[in-house]
Design brief:
Serine Threonine Protein Phosphatase 5, Tetratricopeptide repeat, 359 residues, alpha+beta, Protein Transport Mog1p, Chain A, eight-stranded antiparallel β-sheet, disordered N terminus, 2 domains
């Protein structure tokens, strides 16, 4: 066994493993690789910078992009119906002081024709409040421009865009998009779209407090813990993640795996992929618990759904070894390809050397 090498993101526990050889969001250019990532856990929370969204509750979705500010998921239904679920948080040029300005901004963004083969057919929007944020609920439809350009057919989108008073220059948009010949969302998609759009939740944490806590962690960890504890106790994922990592690594405090696991589980409920990964490490390396390979695989899979290349590599190694799952070289290769596609150099090297095929 040797220490797995990967580039950490924040305070990341590295798992030892086997050594082997402003346009509309749906039209934005995602960081798309050749291999979309199938999503295993439908309806799971995904954490972003300052907010949480749940993935669509029906199965069959794959991710094309995921980072701290945006995600794009895709699914193909029967009869050529294609759907996308978009999460997009973007800075805007001016602060949004009220509902009228928000509605005007959303209209400008969402009615921009994304493709020369399409024309705007319908648009409606209304304002509402969510968790003290100003929000706009919108619906937009684009029809084919003429009979010579029928593709991509009718494009229908439902979405919500929100601005928080504490961050008036940040617009958070969720959008469910359907491309098909149908003139409305297909029945099986409508309920899924509503649940996805309703899943948006904002974090209650204070960004300045978190910055202060990070700074204090390396110098006065007691102050950092005092700063983080109230928000973590209220269920804030970012504060809980920082606390969990402090105890997991022993950064300024004595290592306490039980306490680390407690706070990482709070962060995991807010969809933090780093917490999913670190909980996988806790169960894989028996850090304060009995080793539990199936539990490790569960947590690594939740991180892998969010395109975490290190978690994807770990899953490949479980399948190569037959550790907690039946040995399956084909499944291992799929995870290696996803990890490599998401930038993991070790996964690329393992694929190139090909020694895993003889394990």
């Amino acid at each position: 066994m040797a220490e797995r090498k990967a580039e950490p993101r924040g305070w990341r526990w590295m798992v030892p493993a086997l050594v082997l050889g402003a346009s509309p969001a749906w039209a934005a250019e995602p960081q798309v690789g050749p291999l979309p990532n199938p999503i295993s856990a439908s309806g799971a929370p995904w954490g972003f910078d300052g907010f949480v969204v749940s993935t669509p509750v029906d199965g069959g979705w794959s991710s094309l992009a995921k980072d701290a500010h945006r995600a794009e998921l895709t699914k193909e239904f029967a009869d050529g119906v294609q759907a996308s679920a978009i999460v997009d948080a973007q800075r805007v040029d001016v602060d949004v002081p009220g509902n009228e300005q928000l509605l005007a901004m959303v209209r400008e963004i969402q009615t921009a024709v994304p493709d020369p083969t399409l024309k705007l057919a319908d648009y409606s929007a209304e304002s509402f409040a969510r968790e003290s944020a100003m929000c706009a609920r919108f619906s937009v439809k684009f029809d084919p421009h003429d009979s010579k350009h029928p593709a991509p057919g009718v494009v229908i989108a439902r979405g919500v865009s929100c601005v928080r008073p504490s961050m008036p220059d940040m617009l958070v948009t969720l959008k469910y998009v359907q491309r098909s010949a149908a003139t409305d969302l297909v029945p099986e998609a409508s309920q899924v779209a509503d649940a996805f759009l309703a899943s948006l939740r904002f974090a209650a944490s204070d960004p300045s407090l978190l910055r202060k806590a990070r700074t204090a962690a390396g110098q006065t960890p007691e102050e950092s813990i005092q700063l983080l504890m109230p928000d973590a106790q209220r269920g804030d994922g970012e504060a809980a993640l920082l606390l969990g990592d402090m105890y997991l690594y022993g950064r300024g405090v004595s290592r306490d795996y039980r306490t680390a696991r407690k706070w990482l589980e709070v962060a995991a409920r807010q969809g933090r992929s780093e917490a999913f990964f670190n909980l996988g490490a806790v169960y894989d390396k028996a850090l304060g618990v009995e080793r539990d390979a199936p539990a490790a695989i569960k947590w690594f899979t939740l991180a892998a759904d969010q395109r975490d290349p290190d978690a994807q590599l770990n899953l490949a190694l479980f399948y190569i070894k037959g550790d907690g799952v039946p040995k399956n070289i084909a499944a291992a290769e799929q995870w290696l390809q996803r990890s490599a596609n998401n930038g993991n150099p070790r996964a690329r090297r393992i694929l190139t050397e090909g020694k895993y095929k003889q394990q």
